[in-house]
Amino acid sequence: MISYAVTGLLRFLMVLIAVQYYPFISPQYTNYEAPFVKAFTLKNYVTQLIILIDYFTSRSQTTLKKPMKTVDQLIAHMKNKGVRFSVISETDAKLHLDKHNNYFKLTSYRKNYTKITTGPNAGQYENLEFAHLIELARLDTEIRHILLQMTLDIEHFMKVALIKAVEDRMANNGDEDGYKVIEGYLLADDIIPISDRAQAMAKRNRQFAQKINQNKHNPYCEGLINRYS
Q1: pLDDT per residue over 91-110, tens digit each?
Q2: Residue 42 pLDDT more than 70?
Q3: SS in 3 state form for 17-41?
Q4: Which helix (H) or strand (E) holds 96?
Q5: How far apart are CA 121 and CA 82, in angstroms?
Q6: 26, 130, 131, 134 - which has most CB atoms within 10 Å?
Q7: From CA 204, how far away is CA 192, in angstroms rounded?
Q8: For 100-129, where are the alpha helices, taking DSSP H only?
C-alpha cells in the first residue's frame, strides 16, 4: 500500500514538473529523448506527458535496484569475480572489512589487474589476492600522508615568499601598501583585458561575498570576518 502511495505521489510531482518545464524542452535533445520532444501542441500534450512520466519512472526503477550486501555476501561476490583468499583467510578478510577498511575502497584497486578473457573463468580477475588489495590500500595511504606533508610545507613557504615579495616591493618602489597587491589580484591586471575587468570584478565580488556568507559562522574565521567585513 505504501509503495502505491509513493508511486502515485511521484507521478503527481512529475506531472507538476512537466507542466512547468515541458514547453521549454530544447530541440537539441531530440536524438536523445525523441519520444517526447515533438513540437508542443495541446493535441499531443497528454500523450507526450504520459510518455515523459513513464520514461523517468522506468529509469528510476532500473537504476535503484542494486541490493545492499552483508560482509559474507561481499566476500562471496569477490570470489565469484576471481579474488582469492589463500594469503589471507576469509575469516581475516571479514575482520578487515569489519574493522579496518570498506569494500568499495579496497575493491577499487582491482582495476590494476587484468581479467581472464577465455575459458571457463573468463571475466574473472587473474592472480588477484585479497591481500594484494590490502597492500595497495596501505601504499595509497602512505603516499597520501607523504603528499599531504609536502603540500602543507609548500603552502607555508609560498605564503612566506609572497609576504617577502610584498615587503620588497614596498621597500624598493614605495607604491605598495599591502592593499594594492590584493586589488591587482582581484582585477587580474595582467590577465583580463580592460574591457572585461568590470564584469570580472563583479563576478569575483559575488564569489567572495558567497564565501564570506558561508563562513561567517565558522568558529575558525567568524571573528576575522566580523572584524573586517
Answers
A1: 999 999 999 989 999 999 99
A2: no
A3: HHHHHHHHCCHHHCCCCHHHCCCCC
A4: helix 90-99
A5: 8
A6: 130
A7: 12
A8: 103-107
